[in-house]
Amino acid sequence: MTTAIYLEHGARKTFACAVDWPGWCRVAQGDDAAIALLASYAERYAAVAADAGFAFSLTSASHDVVGDLEVVEHVRGSGATDFGAPDAIPDVDRQPWDATTARRHADLLAASWRIFDRVVASAPAELRKGPRGGGRDRDEIAEHVAESERSYARQLGVRYTPSGFAEPGAPAALAYDNARLLFAAMRRAKDELTTERLREERAGLKELEQLPSGTTLGEQREAYSLLLEHGLIRVGLDVPADAEFIIDSVKDPNHCVAASNDVSVYRRPLPSTNLRFVSAIMWDGRESFATSTIHDDLTRQANNAPRGHAAAFRDITPEQARQIVDFEMGLFTAQSSDNDAGSLSAQGGRGGPEATTLPPCSPPPGPSSTTQSAPAMTSG
Fold first, then answer.
1. Looking at residue 202, what is its pLDDT?
2. Which of 3.30.379, 2.60.40, 3.40.50, 3.30.160 is the CATH number of 1-95?
3. Where in the chain is CATH 3.30.160?
4. What is the pLDDT of residues 223-252, one digit of tens each?
5. How far is CA 114 from CA 41, 83, 110, 150, 177, in A?
6. Cα 174 from Cα 168, distance rounded (Å)
7. Cα–Cα distance for residue pair 191/30, rounded to 1 Å
8. What does the pLDDT look like over 95-120, one tens digit per residue?
9. Which of 72, 243, 263, 336 has the fewest CB within 10 Å, making it most exposed?
10. In this predicted model, what pLDDT tens digit does every residue of 153-164 receive, in sequence order?
């Protein structure tokens, strides 16, 4: 019996991933190398299958694991693929699951977290570094994995609480609970389970939906009125342990908040143009300093993003940072016409984005002006 795998192709690297064994996935340069590396990790993955209670026969030293692997699909990757993270979703992963298959995947995911907990607990705090001195120690790796899981989970509508990861064994417990929620939701969508059966499956776990089932279109519009009418985006944040306030009561008619320790914070989209005129970077100004300029702040942010979100191992080059900031600072938008007044550039008006590109105190563009306007976007 063969084991189905798919290959995700980047420009330089290939991922080989097992379809029915989530987490059994390796990357190498070239298809054959990726498949061979995946096969060599069968012995390691057997521990996950055993912990979850499933038979995994691809572990015998005399067994031809490579010959047992069957490529059922090829998918095109992205820059993330070459960076070392699988990014594409194959068609086989979009196929409907029955309840048994969904529960099996949830159990394998929870087993992966339990083994991860045990490995972290048995590893030394300080790890051997690479030949050039790079790399992370144990706790940094564990934190990175946990934070990555939180990031991925948010894209699926599942939320982890940051404080939960600080407790021993918490990642596995949280992963198992949220895996059950996630796969229960997938089963409901694909198998059309009733709300009552879904709630029984959850066994007292928190509701996954942000709105109760059966809400009318009018109720949904009212629930999202701040977004639709005012452009406000709700973000649930946990109250810090050292906060100088407490939550005395919660009024949450639309069931937005997942726990009593959360508060709803409302934000508007950040500006992506006319950055020459902003006074601080980020919502709370955490990327800005009193002794630096906006150009300095954007340069710092350009490097912090790949170092943080993409977990890059090195800083971007000064030239790369310059190109990013030049692009950001060269974007301008402004209203150029009005339904009643017509063109806002007529009769000497300075409507439209061209005027915003001019240096301060420059005369408006026109036949009598010798001042040339700056380009709307500078080249990198």
1. 40
2. 3.30.160
3. 1-95
4. 777 777 777 777 777 777 777 877 777 777
5. 18, 27, 6, 16, 13
6. 11
7. 38
8. 877 777 877 887 888 788 888 888 88
9. 243
10. 666 555 555 444
